[in-house]
Write a structure and sequence with these properties.
This protein is mostly helical and 190 residues long. The protein has helices at 4-11, 21-45, 48-71, 75-91, 93-104, 107-132, 142-163, 172-177, 182-189. The chain has a single domain, classed as MFS general substrate transporter like domains (Growth Hormone, Chain: A). 78% of the residues lie in helices and 0% in strands. The longest helix is centred in the middle third of the chain and has 26 residues, at 107-132.
Amino acid sequence: MLYSHQMLKQMQSPGGKGLDPRTGVYLIGVINMFASLASTRIVKMFGRKPLVIWGHAGIAMVHFAIGILNNMDNNLGVLLLLLLFLVLYQNTSGPVAWLYAAETNIDSALGFCLLVLWGTVFVLSLVCPILMSTPDQGGIGPSNVFFMLGAFNVAGSIYSKFVLKETRGLTDKDKKLLFTPERYRRDLKN
């Protein structure tokens, strides 16, 4: 969302036909809004852990496909997959990251988690424009960025499989105890 116009502009092949970047950004905004609305139901229906694992796996496949389609100068395919990414993200790891942080942390730790989440968004907004530029401009190019993001999502899916603990159906107290060291659990249980 932060960088979609520039990204669509850079990814557009020379003389390419199809949607212009402005129309693509409008379409991205509308799809993002409806995907966000749907997420309120999806998050209630499924556990946090499966949503994050399968979300990262699906997003990885979409990112790899975007890189391939961009190399083939398929603008419409890239745009459609960007829209699919938004739907996947808004219904899996997007809202679950915020929800999971709130469910498993006490107030002071939650502040730190939110700092990290927003810090990640900030860093991505600074780094992506540089990385998306062509190699002669100091970047690695759009396709390589999406291949890299796909690899990060594969790693995120594997990490989530082994580290994340399910919180769906637990009481608030049980959620907070999931990551509490044993020596502190006795005090919290009393």
